[in-house]
Model the fold of this input.
Amino acid sequence: MPRRIAVVGGGWAGLAAAVQARRLGLEVCLFEMSAQLGGRARSLPANTGTNIHSAQRLDNGQHILIGAYTQSLDLMRTIGVDLNEALLRTPLRLRYPDHEGLRLPTGHPLLAFTRGVLAYRQWPLATRLGLLAQSLQWLASGFRCEPGLSVLELCHRLRPAAMQDLIAPLCVAALNTPAERASAQVFLRVLRDALFSGPGSADLLLPRLPLSALMAEPAQAWLAGHACDIRLATRAHRLDVDGRAWRLDGECFDAVVLACPAGEAARLVLPHHAAWAATAQSLHFEPIITVYLESSGTRLPAPMVALQESPDEPAQFIFDLGQLGHTAGSFTMVISGASDWVARGLNATGEAALAQARAVLDWATTPTIERVLAEKRATFACTPGLRRPANTVAVGLWAAGDYVDGPYPATLEGAVRSGTMAAQLAAAHLQH
Done:
């Protein structure tokens, strides 16, 4: 008889765990409390009260991948996603409204980074050489540093232009935490894998499909086709140990993967695993705000344009959805590390982002706000010395999610890796 495993949570971590567990021969039951899979990376129905084209599906925030996200890409291939159709792949390019930013050519990563930095004439030569020298020091150290350092402290020798045009936008995009509060240790790991781990690792992969079509829907079809039990709109209420097995709301399973949010996982393991629960509950979270704009006839100079944020200009990036296969004239502005702007209110944030867009970009027609979305617990705050909960909770019980201890910050790749690892650990445990 195949062993039976429960996966609680249908976000990217839970989907990765369910797919991997099924591939390893386990019988899978997937619980998801909402009416659809995908977690925080899913599509929403378009708001008919706006001017957005009725056929357009809005995403719950703008997500991107990079070439180094190998396990996410492998999972997509497994469930039948055509990566060439689903993702626009380009070398790393930080285009600004009024000038071309750092742009990496193809080839060996170290040589490509050196050539890209030296070719960036917007920076003085001293800034370019300083960045290359600092990068070589990071490379020589194995991209390791003291765990208590912030990104700002790590980069204190860099010239302001390199911090402003490269380090700060990469940091807030990857860690969703401003450089002055972000973990240098985690940031260096991201730099290592993205910029120096292999050809194409730094490539930008911009979704051409709605987020649900990118992962949740093909994963659901794959799981259903492989005889997995998918229970939507079903919240797990109680988890109890039963000898060598577990009972989830009275139903018996040989193993359980908690791929739900940290707070929900902590609730389920209390009171028996209080230490793990306390670590999960100690995490603080950072919001992300997404502002949807519309401007008929407008085309940005690149699909993704970096912006300079300031106390009155909240957004770090704007995306031209028309260049990504969506409705032409639709745009998303992304505000990461947005706790201060959440406090100001979504209306004020949307108006500030709109004013920023009007000031720095050329528009064929006056842009208008169509919708402002806030994910108030988008990611954990990736701060120096942060202690994250382990993936193993107890014998036969594992946790999965982008918050679980691992090398990556709260990214799609971190979620997929943790889910895959939890399924592998469960299968190995049940084999013995």
Q: What stands out?
A: The chain has three domains: 4-42+210-284+388-431, 92-202, 285-379. The chain has a mean pLDDT of 94.
